[in-house]
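retry 2 of 3: previous attempt timed out while embedding zinc ion. Reduced batch size to 1 and resubmitted. Inputs unchanged:
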Amino acid sequence: MDKLKVILFYKFVVIEDPEKFAEEHMDFCSKLGLVGKIIVATEGINGSLSGEVSLIEKYKKFVLSYSFLDDVWFKEEDVVENTFTKIAVIIKNEIVTMTCSVDIEKTPKHVDPLEFKKLIEDPEVVILDARNDYEYKVGHFKGALNSGIRTFRQFPKFISEFKKENAKKKVAIYCTGGIRCEKAGAYMKEQGFEEVYQLNGGIINYCQTLPSTTWQGKCFVFDKRLVTDVEKKGETIGECFVCFEKTDLYRNCKYSLCDRFDVICNSCQVELHGCCSMDCRSKFWMECVAKKEGKRIEVNVYG
Ligand SMILES: [Zn+2]
Ligand SMILES: [Zn+2]
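retry 2 succeeded.
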């Protein structure tokens, strides 16, 4: 069998007819048997797909065949198995959800890995991780600031505080593949930040270009893998939030009203029955009992 690859790509560009565009991509991917997730909006396209190298190459050609997408940059990684289970092409209002309108033309200066490394090494520069808190935990640039947000929707709220101390400083931001920085950076400029830089191509490109320099740990990815050892150095910096043991494992709390997604080691997962705390464990148990009793009542009624 051919080798497998995963690709990440995006472009902010006006897509006049998202329905038709989405259908074309769905048809193309389904015929090739590619798996992944493509988000389409009138503001552009954002996708990640995996499959055999030759098929991925066909899809790349297909994307580049649209005149308004002929400069799309694909970030690629070799993988040992498909990183998705099915193909989904979804039409949304935004290709990356910040729920706060921003003029994407205001995107900050893009810097390549070498320039970004210089910014990291400059003590005057604030390095801001534009990703979520749980992503930061398993890997980040040395000295980077964790925004502590749980979802990108909270980024504007974070900025309203962050700007008080930092709007006049040089700020360099980064994310996985670059898409969140396009919006985050434009938003920061609108909010009055004087000097913002964004890492072009994101963490994936940086680690492939300058491995073993200033990146620490692994990189969270929004696919089946959850984490990729992008520099292949086997370094674990993630810590279980329950027992502080080093781990790169994640899970959602099984108690439906909690659903906390965080870094948690295997033994704590077992001990807490897949929940995040003893409290959630007992609530989850009550939830299971309620479900079972609900079924029993149903059987009585119809039986
Ligand atoms: Zn633990
Ligand atoms: Zn919980």
